[in-house]
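hey so u asked for the seq, here:
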Amino acid sequence: MLDFMGNSRKNEVDNGAYSNTNIPVTLQQGLSLSPYMNVDPSYLPISQPEFIFPEGAVKQRGRLELAFGQIGAACILGAGIGGASGLYRGIKATTIAGETGKLRRTQLINHVMKGGANMANSLGVITIMYTCAGIGITWIRGTDDSLNTIGAAAASAALFRSAAGVRKAGFASAIAAGVATMYCIWNNGGFSSQRMREWKSYRS
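ran it, structure tokens below
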């Protein structure tokens, strides 16, 4: 490290800087001199973190990258909800049947495992359908926005309930589209006053 402080005895100070090194020796208000650089940190450029993306790449994770986490989260959530529901049904059924001891414990475990597996399987399948539909719609439209999310939710719900008939499939699709719409509104800023003013100005 250069000893600039030692040079101060041999060089004159001109307006707070060494005449031969042009390094400031005075500090601006609220800043401290670095003991390692001997430079006023206010003269160093402050920039935000920058990330390097391949040329032409989108600066966000795509639906395929998010699919794995979404499917896993759906399965875990389904297992938890189904297990809790199975435990409730098991307690109710064994109480009515008057079962006790090891027999009741075995029945409770069976109810929990069956309920958790069924719900995890259902939510996992729905999520796979949703991600596949989202990827397909994004590929067809060439862009990824909220319309893709709403369309993917409606399509996956209709496909999942298609075996129950057209009416139930349409009803499930409408509910899924409504939930997806509410999520997109919340994700894009919600119903804040600023967003409402922007919407009114856009409509006018």
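The longest helix spans residues 101-141. Residues 1-19 have pLDDT under 50 and may be disordered.
lmk if thats what u needed
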